[in-house]
Amino acid sequence: MHTFTFNHIALSVKNVDKSVAFYQKVLQLKEIKNTASESKTRWLSLNDSLQLHLIPRPDSEIKTNKAVHFALSTADLDSFVNYLKDLKIDYSDWLGTINKDYIRKDGIKQIYFQDPNGYWIEINDDV
Length: 127
Known about the structure:
Radius of gyration: 15 Å
CATH class of the largest domain: Alpha Beta
Largest sheet: 4 strands, mixed
Shape: globular
Number of domains: 2
Order of helices and strands: EHEEEEHEEE
CATH architecture of the largest domain: Roll
Strand content: 25-35%
Number of helices: 2
Number of strands: 8
């Protein structure tokens, strides 16, 4: 039987500098060295073993929908929501109600918001 660990998420982005700035400011991710190539792809660290790779594709069409998202957990969702409000970033529940959270059937609270390319990010309190 094979075992796996999650390594990274890769997203195509229109403007890699703008995307890096967004993820550094909003999620406070640290930029790390792209050890794979000398390309303009930039890597950010989600933690010691997980990475977000932002691949510049300025001429590509980026299609998104909320069902395609990545999720991060925090022990203090309310504080993060207040941080988004300070940044004037709207968030929503799954149905799209602006500035409203959602409590799943299993008791996990979650919100969704979008990055500059329209990718959906879920933040929840499932820690």
